[in-house]
TrEMBL record:
Taxonomic lineage: Archaea, Methanobacteriati, Methanobacteriota, Stenosarchaea group, Halobacteria
MF-aspect GO terms: catalytic activity
InterPro entries: ClpP/crotonase-like_dom_sf, Enoyl-CoA_hyd/isom_CS, Enoyl-CoA_hydra/iso
Full protein name: Enoyl-CoA hydratase/carnithine racemase
Family indicated by similarity: Belongs to the enoyl-CoA hydratase/isomerase family.
Length: 259
């Protein structure tokens, strides 16, 4: 089904791997089509509770593979807009997913590849990882979402430093800035550990909490949404099992089908 992407759903975790290691997992149009399809599959699969996004063989994603791209300045604007919309839709889908997503970044995350990592709910980085919004270095703007995402993650002033200079965000800085939750020798294993920790919690509560964290909403909007989401949780069997397990001093047992 996939050529440029590996997709594996197992025990509640969907692992999506960008698999073009010969070009540091840089993407072509086919890659973007497959990434969108894989994320959609994970979002729609009732047996998937968390999503891990990573890249093959030590890289995350080095951005667009320029050797596979047409000369866009010789094409119609509408054609370029359609292509860019597809790239943006990877970010759009990750942000819209109720199921928590974790980026496991072992190496370069550059350009739109950086934005794919930023679009995830959390990031784990390896010692050789770095994030680079390097668009200005080649005379472009962060058209895939980075100029919107990065200020919300690390603050406007710090974000502009990286956006306007194209400097790398190294692993230590990523953790210090709150961009990454952890630095680990094996970021994919650490991301799966975090995903499994989330799997041990009531899924509706995890997903509704993920939906509720929205920096664009006002407080009253938050409160209105919280009423609806809390009602979902109150009526969720996993909530009742979690409370019973707490009262009985035991681990909860959730009735789930991961197939």
């Amino acid at each position: 089904m996939y050529e440029d992407v590996q997709y594996e759903a197992s025990e509640g975790i969907a692992t999506i791997t960008i698999d073009r290691p010969d070009v540091l997992n840089a993407f072509r149009e086919q890659t973007i089509l497959e990434l969108n399809a894989a994320i959609r599959d994970a979002r729609e699969d009732d047996g998937v509770y968390t999503i891990v996004l990573t890249g093959a063989d030590g890289a995350f994603c080095a951005g667009a593979d320029t050797t596979e791209m047409p000369a866009w300045d010789e094409q119609a604007k509408e054609d370029y807009a359609g292509y860019l919309w597809g790239v943006q839709n990877v970010v759009r889908q990750l942000r819209a997913a109720s199921k928590p997503s974790i980026a496991a970044v072992a190496g370069p995350a550059v350009g739109a590849g950086c934005d794919f990592g930023l679009a995830c709910d959390m990031r784990v980085v390896g010692p050789d990882a770095f994030f680079r919004e390097g668009f200005v270095r080649v005379g472009l703007i962060p058209g895939d979402g980075g100029g919107w995402l990065l200020p919300r993650l690390i603050g406007e002033s710090a974000a502009k430093q990286y956006l306007l200079t194209g400097r790398d965000i190294e692993p230590d800085d990523a953790v210090d800035l709150g961009l990454a939750v952890e630095e680990a020798e094996d970021p994919l294993a650490a991301a799966h550990d975090l995903a499994e920790e989330l799997l041990g919690l009531p899924a509706t509560a995890v997903q509704r909490t993920n939906d509720l964290v929205d920096s664009e909403q006002g407080f009253e909007d938050y409160c209105e949404r919280a009423i609806e989401y809390q009602w979902d949780c109150v009526n969720d069997p996993e909530h009742h099992e979690a409370v019973a397990a707490f009262n009985e001093n035991r681990d909860p047992e959730y009735d789930r089908d991961y197939s």
